[in-house]
Amino acid sequence: MKRRNFFQRWRERRSAEESGSLANPPNWLLNLFGGGANTSSGESVTNEGSLLNSNVYTCASIVGGDIGKLPIQVFRRRNGGIERDSGHPVSRLLGTRANPYMSAYTFKELMQVHTMVWGNGYANIEWETNGPFNGMPKAFWPLDPGKTDVHTDLVTGEVWYVTTLPSGEMRKLRHYDVLHFKSISKSGLKGITPISVIREELGVQKSQRKFLGGFYANGTATRGILKIPNATLDKPAKDKARDEWQKANSGMNNAHRIAILDAGMEYQNLGMPLNDAQFIETSKFGIMEVAKIYKVPGYKLGLTDVKFSNMENQSLEYVKSTLQPIITNWEQELDYKCFTELERKRYYTKFNVAAELRGDSASRGAFYKLMIEIGVYTINEVRELEEADNIGEKGDVHFVSLNYVNLEKMDQYQMLKAGLSTDAKGGAKGE
Predict the structure, then answer these.
(1) Per its UniProt entry, which superkingdom is the organism in (predicted)?
(2) 3-state percent helix, strand, coil for the chain, nearest multiple of 5
């Protein structure tokens, strides 16, 4: 009885929602299969299908490629200092090969694309079970974000991940066995897909693409009316005249054929819709909406109204405002999931963004010069950043400019310049 009542309530609730057919399925069914929904433009937009939108694809390609190409290095705190550890298994997985079939770049790019489109990027951590690296990560296996969900045990409060493998097998994974990179979230457990925010806009863009396809398929650059003076045509005659005109002017093969008008017919052009300012502005607005939601500078998507002198500032802002939050998200998730509690006291991961920030050769040279003068970098460290061989032990010496002096020694320094001897406290003798 309880089961029958449950299904009865479920059926009544679904029937009360918007009805649909196989040709026009209801929104709840689209959400169930593919995470999509109908839009006011009449187009259905799914998470997976949104990647076929050129603007979404470009943004995902730009940000995903930037995350994929930036090296993630593993560092170890040791004897009061910090050193890079390239021998740790995590360093190999994030720097060379995430699994036997996927390079580190491909894995990082894929995870970021999943995060940008589905709002969540999941990867199952395979652990080493024997050998010197027992208990450490062995491989990262991406999970389908459309078939993976986050669940919380109502009794214990523990978080689980439920996923469906390509074989159709459903598997339940513990939270510490899954890397989870998420976008902005309401609960902190699962990210919101950005596609849900711009679904209506993507529907408009999809309608525009269909319009353009139909426009060029017709092979005519104009739209208009046929006028027949001093004649009143019945419906069959109008249909015949329209059909004959369309036969002569539709299709790419007929695009440049000469139309012959008889019986005093006159063609009146009503204008070309692609020249309408509103159409162009709508297209431009659509690009900016997608760029805005992903925080990607408009010039990266082909908008040319940005002055060249501002591109460098926008590129720097892109690193700080777009990439840096993503990088922090990655680093904190990797540090917590990839290292044991004991290891987390010594090991951590860090993106190397120097390549993105150092700019051209002139700016890079000025930066290195400053870092050497204040003793931050050695010559060998600079050469390593430039992927050049070191020059031996002499290149490990730190330099500092003689133009700098400790404030406590300033008075003594001035006395010495004046030729006066000073006592131990820095004052002139005889005072």
Answers:
(1) Bacteria
(2) 50, 15, 35
Q: Are residues 38 and 24 in the same domain?
A: no
The sign one gets for the Cα dihedral 222, 228, 233, 236 is negative
Helix (H) or strand (E) holding 371: helix 361-373
Distance of alpha carbon 389 from alpha carbon 392, whole angstroms:
9
pTM: 0.68
Distance between CA atoms of residues 331 and 240, nearest Å: 69
- Whole-Å CA distances, 126 to 141, 233, 367: 7, 77, 41
Q: 10 Å Cβ neighbour count for 146?
A: 17
Q: Give the pLDDT band (50/70/90) at residue 253.
A: low
Q: Same structural domain for residues 64 and 126? A: yes
Q: Where are the alpha helices (DSSP H) in 80-234?
A: 89-95, 104-118, 194-197, 199-218
Q: How far apart are CA 267 and CA 407, in angstroms?
A: 89
Clarify whether residues 166 and 56 are in a common domain. Answer: yes
Rounded average pLDDT over 74-98: 90
d(CA 242, CA 233): 12
Q: Which domain holds residue 9?
A: 1-28
Residue 130 backbone dihedrals phi, psi, to 5 degrees: -155, 175
**Residues β-bridged to residue 161:** 150, 173
Higher pLDDT, 120 or 17: 120
CA Rg value for the chain: 33
What would the pLDDT profile of 365-406 be if each residue is shown by its tens digit?
888 888 888 888 888 888 877 767 788 888 888 887 767 767
